[in-house]
């Protein structure tokens, strides 16, 4: 099989960093459990399976709001959907297609028909 690597290229054997990441994950989960109702947590965990980057952005947004006291009670599933829409608008990527046409010595423009 393959070797398990840490996110930022560190060797996998540093226990203090692993413990710190584990503690941080526990704190995040505790805060999210306090601010989200059951349906909203289920939706967020489903989102994390499909789009982990977007789920992380929503989690960060919720934790920041909780730390600054901007959340009144638990966030419902509908509230989470609204937050998802806000985050999606902020992180929306514009897709552009650029055609690079190669110039060849024997181009179609010079062809005689």
From TrEMBL:
UniProt feature, compositional bias: Basic and acidic residues: 1-11
Gene Ontology annotations for the cellular component aspect, listed alphabetically: cytosol; nucleus
UniProt GO BP: apoptotic process
Keyword Cell membrane: no
Region of interest (Disordered), ranges: 1-25
Keyword line: Acetylation, Apoptosis, Phosphoprotein
A Pfam short name: dsDNA_bind
A GO term for molecular function: DNA binding
UniProt cross-references to InterPro entries, sorted A to Z: PDCD5-like (IPR002836), PDCD5-like_sf (IPR036883)
Similarity comment: family membership: Belongs to the PDCD5 family.
Function: May function in the process of apoptosis.
Name assigned to this protein: Programmed cell death protein 5
UniProt organism field: Lepidothrix coronata
């Amino acid at each position: 099989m393959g070797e398990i690597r840490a996110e930022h290229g560190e060797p996998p054997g540093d226990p203090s960093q692993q413990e710190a990441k584990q503690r941080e994950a526990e704190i995040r989960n505790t805060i999210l459990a306090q601010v989200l109702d059951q349906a909203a947590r289920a939706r967020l965990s489903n989102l994390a399976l499909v789009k982990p980057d977007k789920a992380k952005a929503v989690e960060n947004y919720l934790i920041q709001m909780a730390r600054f006291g901007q959340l009144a009670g638990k966030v419902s599933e509908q509230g989470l959907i609204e937050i998802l829409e806000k985050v999606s608008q902020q992180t929306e990527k514009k897709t552009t297609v650029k055609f690079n046409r190669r110039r060849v010595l024997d181009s179609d423009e010079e062809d005689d028909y």
